[in-house]
Amino acid sequence: MEGVLMSGVSSLLSALGSSSSSMKTLAIFTLVIVAYSVFIFYFYRFLARKNIINLDLSKYNKYQFGGIYRFFAIIFFIIEYIIILPFITFFWFGVLAILILLLAELELELILIVSAVLIGAIRITSFISEDLSRDLAKMIPLAFLALALTSSTFLDINVVVDKFYQVPLLLSDAMSFLLFIVIVEIVMRVLDFIANIFRKDGTEEIKKEMEN
């Protein structure tokens, strides 16, 4: 009788221990999904805007005419769109790469390429349509989450811990993609500037025709 009782107690403790371990695992991965969802929410709302930052440094250009005005206009453009903006975008690129690392079974180089391509596509489409850019910024990260949930290793805490150890290596390789982000932003800004010139010229011609 005593042996049966001890066996029952042992089984109960074992079950409780197993249940406690499962609860911890569930809690950890629930927090991971919540954190990823929050990231996507701010990611698409922020990065999908054409003008991510509205510093408008041109208002500090006190010169109205001549070469000095153009000189400072170029300086402020470089500061805002070639220095500040790419580094902000690069921050989101780094966070996205880390989250994809945790969710997807991909090589580090491929993770960086996918992240850079996604960031580039979001930034390019933001100049065409911010609605399109927002959809793109939401759907693809959510697709990664959906794929992760169907993976057999998703709830394996050891796999996640191993991936965390790869984060420094991932970030050390990420700097090489900063140039790509800068180039994308510069090209789109230049094209947008040219397009605005044509739009203004077209608007002025329409006004002249209406006046005549």
Description:
The chain is built from seven helices and no strands. Mean pLDDT is 75; it is low at 1-13 and 205-212. The relative contact order is 0.11. The chain starts with a helix and ends with a helix. It has one domain (13-211). It is mainly α. The protein is elongated.
Can you give the helix content as a percent range? over 70%
Q: Uncertain segments of ≥5 residues (pLDDT<50)?
A: 1-13, 205-212
Number of strands: 0
Q: Spell out the helices and strands N to C.
A: HHHHHHH
The rough form would be described as elongated
Say what oligomer this is.
single chain
Mean pLDDT: 75
**How many individual domains?**
1
Radius of gyration: 26 Å
Specify the structural class. mainly alpha
Biggest sheet record: none
Strand content: under 5%
In DSSP terms, counting alpha (H) and pi (I) runs of 4 or more, how many helices?
7
Q: In whole angstroms, how far apart are the ends?
A: 109 Å
Short précis:
With 212 residues, the chain is mostly helical. The chain has seven helices and no strands.
Question: What's the layout of helices and strands?
Answer:
Elements: H1 2-47, H2 66-103, H3 108-128, H4 130-149, H5 157-164, H6 167-174, H7 178-211
Helix pairs in contact: 1-2, 1-4, 2-3, 2-6, 2-7, 3-4, 3-7
Q: What characteristics describe this protein?
A:
212 residues, disordered N terminus, disordered C terminus, mainly alpha, single chain
